[in-house]
Specification:
The protein is α+β, with helices and mostly antiparallel strands and 318 residues long. 34% of the residues lie in helices and 12% in strands. The protein is built from twelve helices and ten strands. It has helices at 4-17, 32-43, 57-61, 102-120, 137-143, 191-195, 213-219, 242-245, 265-269, 272-277, 280-286, 296-311, and strands at residues 22-27, 72-79, 92-93, 126-129, 148-149, 155-156, 164-171, 201-202, 206-207, 236-238. The chain has a four-stranded antiparallel β-sheet with strand order 1-2-7-4, sandwiched between helices. Strand 5 and strand 6 (155-156) form a beta hairpin.
Length: 318
């Protein structure tokens, strides 16, 4: 009969074989401190129109509500930093969206990991999550010893910066738990705060989601982007990487080895004119497996129009 130590080693070995860059494990327990922070954040309206953030509050802070009898929270990181990048003078897309939709890629890996655990360890109850369920994945990553939460709200690692997707597997299997990451290596640096085009990053590791470019270009479903955002998007029309690009720790970022995240050629090389002339049929064909489909063709067109018009002094809503 295998021991907890052996089970832990097996799981971390399987995670590496599936291509995950890091794997850490924390004891499943209620996140009381995070509950207070989340409640305050919501009360201040920093979630904007993202009403879903108010839903399932208890599920977000208590893993046993998601998996009855949960004992362990396994956190996995997958690097997405691209080997090639867009011309900085072009219309910009956040790097996480360069290749195939990470939800599809990581969900498959999580399913395979859970299947391996059940095959080689036994009947284990578990659920995998990747940015699509009420899980505070950055907190679990910190509690699993993988890194610290930076001033821009992202998980930071000394080895590779912050260009990682975070996935979570909650199980009822007891495992050996990693020590929480206790240090904060941001120090007095405020580069992310100073560089944020919309002043969305506050000086206490809080991000006002209702002011973030990613919110306006992806989450906001209104037909028009508020006029007060005129000239503040710095050519970003789907997401934003500014706070990561300026972070000193990302000088250690290495190109991902995950081929599914290889950039879509058109995305890297489209000129502004080509983006503007893109038809809906072409959009659906080129970006059928891309995160860009989240905004739909109409949303992409809205964003493109806003970014281009604001630089021409004709922002919508003026």
């Amino acid at each position: 009969m295998r021991t907890i130590e052996q089970h832990t080693t097996l799981i971390k070995t399987y995670a590496a074989q599936l291509g995950f860059d890091y794997c850490g494990i924390a004891r499943a327990q209620r996140l009381d401190e995070d509950a207070r922070r989340l409640e305050s954040w919501l009360q201040q309206g920093m979630h904007g129109s993202m009403g879903y953030m108010e839903n399932h509050f208890e599920l977000r802070i208590d893993p046993t509500k998601l998996v009855p009898g949960a004992q362990s929270v396994i956190t996995l990181l997958l690097n997405y930093y691209p080997a090639e990048q867009q011309d900085p003078d072009s219309l910009q897309v956040a790097k996480y969206a360069y290749g195939k939709d990470y939800h599809e890629v990581i969900r498959e890996k999580l399913n395979r990991l859970l299947a391996l655990i059940k095959l080689h360890i036994g009947e284990v109850q578990g659920r995998g999550f990747v940015d699509s369920a009420p899980v505070l994945e950055r907190t679990w990553a910190q509690r699993s010893g993988l890194g610290w939460i930076g001033k821009n709200g992202n998980l930071l690692t000394k080895q590779g910066g912050s260009f990682f997707f975070i996935a979570t597997l909650i199980t009822d299997l007891p495992l050996r738990y990693d020590d929480p990451y206790a240090k904060d290596f941001c120090g007095t640096c405020t580069k992310c705060i100073d560089a944020c085009p919309t002043d969305a990053i506050l000086d206490n590791k809080v991000v006002d989601g209702s002011k973030c470019i990613s919110y306006f270009t992806i989450e906001l479903k209104d037909k028009l982007i508020p006029g007060e955002m005129k000239n503040k998007f710095d050519n970003w029309f789907f997401g934003c990487d500014t706070c990561q690009d300026v972070c000193p720790w990302n000088r250690f970022a290495q190109a991902t080895q995950e081929t599914e995240f290889s950039p879509i050629p058109e995305l890297l090389h489209f000129t502004t004119a080509e983006w503007q002339s893109l038809t809906e049929d072409a959009f659906k064909k080129i970006f059928r497996h891309s995160p860009l489909k989240r905004s739909k063709f109409s949303g992409i067109q809205r964003n493109l129009t806003f970014v281009q018009n604001t630089f021409d002094g004709e922002g919508p809503g003026q």
